[in-house]
Recover the amino acids of this structure.
């Protein structure tokens, strides 16, 4: 399992955040080209994934289908990711799914419920997209991602994706490392000058689009 420590930054632009990361004394350097990340989140009829996060349930899971590319309608090699968390520690399971179209999610929805390893029936609830940058220490032990240009579309009251409804100007920084490295992570954390926040893009997206439930 690994730690995923998130920081939602609303008062500083992404370029300043990038400079802070690259000037970190742990020598974070770019390890992968920037790319657009696209997701469809799935939840059950009670929105358990949403409410478990909001209410701070320690053991929770979240389902999403992810693919990459600037054109969100060009879906290639999508994967179902099941994120399982216990407090701040987590891991994810990943399964390939068949290509699909955003204007018809019925077949994908059935496939997700079949692969969810759960008795719940899942439905698509949110589409989001953002641009991600990847940084890591030279020893490969610590990674940082920087997400910006966040966009959201609610599927709670829509049968298909048409266009994004709202943009979030925040920047989300995430520090990731193995649980065995937590004691040594203090050095990394002390030079991240942002306030730690429980930042879920799934929760943020639904709150922005629908409001607090």
């Amino acid at each position: 399992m690994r730690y995923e420590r998130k920081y939602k930054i609303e008062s500083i632009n992404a370029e300043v955040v990038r400079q802070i990361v690259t000037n970190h004394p742990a020598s974070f350097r770019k390890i992968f080209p920037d790319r657009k990340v696209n997701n469809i989140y799935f939840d059950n009829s009670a929105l358990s994934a949403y409410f478990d996060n909001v209410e701070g349930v320690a053991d929770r899971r979240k389902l999403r289908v992810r693919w990459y590319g600037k054109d969100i309608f060009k879906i290639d090699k999508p994967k179902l990711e099941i994120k399982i968390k216990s407090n701040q520690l987590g891991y994810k399971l990943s399964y390939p799914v068949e290509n699909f179209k955003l204007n018809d999610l019925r077949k994908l929805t059935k496939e997700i419920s079949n692969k969810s390893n759960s008795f719940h029936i899942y439905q698509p609830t949110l589409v989001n997209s953002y641009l991600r940058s990847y940084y890591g220490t030279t020893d490969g032990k610590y990674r940082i991602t920087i997400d910006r240009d966040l966009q959201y579309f609610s599927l709670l009251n829509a049968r298909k994706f048409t266009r994004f409804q709202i943009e979030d100007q925040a920047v989300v920084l995430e520090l990731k490392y193995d649980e065995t490295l937590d004691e040594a992570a203090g050095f990394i954390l002390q030079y991240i000058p942002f306030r730690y926040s429980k930042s879920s893009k799934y929760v943020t997206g639904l709150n922005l689009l629908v409001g607090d439930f």
User: Anything to note?
Assistant: The longest strand covers residues 29-43. The two ends are 31 Å apart (CA to CA).
